[in-house]
Design brief:
Length: 83
């Protein structure tokens, strides 16, 4: 596993939402949700491991070759915390 440094934040994109037989995928270009896995020591935000974030579209650096959804993002990629 990667440990983020500085102001970087490690998140995992949330899986597609399933409702009945419909699978609701985010539409390209729309913000998406991700769960905070780890936070760099210099990140100056009011977030914690396990929080769900709303991120700008097409953001972050994918850090795994598997389809596990792990991304490294920066503070400017975060739109808000989902309550």
């Amino acid at each position: 596993m990667i440990r983020p440094i500085g102001k970087n934040i490690l998140v995992q994109k949330q899986k597609e939402e399933k409702k009945g037989i419909l699978i609701l995928k985010p539409i390209d270009g729309e913000p998406y949700k991700a769960t905070v896995i780890d936070i760099g020591s210099k990140a100056d935000l009011d977030i914690a491991v396990g929080d769900t974030l709303l991120l700008v579209p097409y953001t972050g650096s994918r850090i795994s070759t598997d389809d596990d959804g792990y991304l490294l993002i920066t503070e400017r990629d975060i739109l808000g915390v989902v309550a």
